[in-house]
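QA checklist item 7 of 12: single-chain prediction sanity check.
[x] sequence parsed
[x] length recorded as 197
[x] structure emitted
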Amino acid sequence: MKHVKYIPARGKGSGFLLMCAACAAGVAIGSLPAVNMAGDCSPWVHQYFSPSLCGDTVSAIFARTLLSSLIFIAAAFLSGTFVFGQPVGAALLVYRGVGIGASVSAMYAAGGLRSLPAVVVLILPFALADLFVAVIAVREVLRSSSDLLRFMVSGEKRSSERSSFRLYCIKFAVLALISFIISLAVPLMSYVFGGLL
């Protein structure tokens, strides 16, 4: 009688670490002087991670922060519906990191060490929460894209395509709701701690 050895699944922890590495690479790229200079004027670079780049009113900060998050979630959602969405998902994580790096660098360039409390209170909590949402979104992109690729290569179908897609949509709707809550917190923090800017 043959003995079957249980081999633990690998790759889950390493996949998470790779996604975190993609975020960190984006932050490093966003901190480069050339990217930082471009981020001063382009919202496509700084992605409104710094409240000081969003405008002077609470409503402007909320609207621009939410818009930035929803654009990312929509791009992630769409990339998960394609067979080759995996590299797009990784690129989106790097891109999100670039926005954080550019925003922090711009604030540091404007205020030096005096800007450190503002960075810690007004940028980092939102940035970390947003990166958490981004990593979860890209994880779903990788799963969906892998399922599609498996079906294209081997013809292996999932148990229920319709329920799988419905679950995929629900997950992204929840992520959009979390982003909405985060975007509500950003102008509130800016209002309370506006003196740090």
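[x] summary fact logged: Residues 1-10 have pLDDT under 50 and may be disordered.
[ ] second reviewer sign-off
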